[in-house]
From TrEMBL:
This is Arsenate reductase ArsC. Keywords: Arsenical resistance. Transmembrane segments: none annotated. The keyword Nucleus does not apply. GO terms for biological process: response to arsenic-containing substance. Residues 6-131 form the Phosphotyrosine protein phosphatase I domain.
Amino acid sequence: MTDQKPSVLFVCVHNAGRSQMAAGWLRHLAGDRIEVRSAGSMPAEQINPVAVAAMHEVGIDITAEQPKILTTDAVQDSDVVVTMGCGDACPFFPGTRYEDWKLDDPAGQGIDAVRLIRDEIKARVEALITELLGSPEPGRPEGGNR
């Protein structure tokens, strides 16, 4: 990586659940060390209220977020593009890293199921932060419990 902070784009069809939770986790855990985006190919009217509730339980407020349309510019401007196991096809740009996280869709599921998805997303986001920055938390040395 260069001195410029890395950017990550989370993509799912409706940009209402998985991608919003992932963006919330990344903002919470990485602070301003990583630029965070999320989008969908067919954005919903609003974020899934059960996803909002599940994130609120862990102290992360995503209520102000709105589903956004996926654009070619958003993909091109991102270092890492993460699709959320929903079959979304993104434009391909050389030099951009692509990952597909196979995750259950929280749409129509109860809070217990969404909590499991939320927690799996957190683990994946922590691993991504470590790959990009070397430390999952601001001010914490790599691998350190200091």
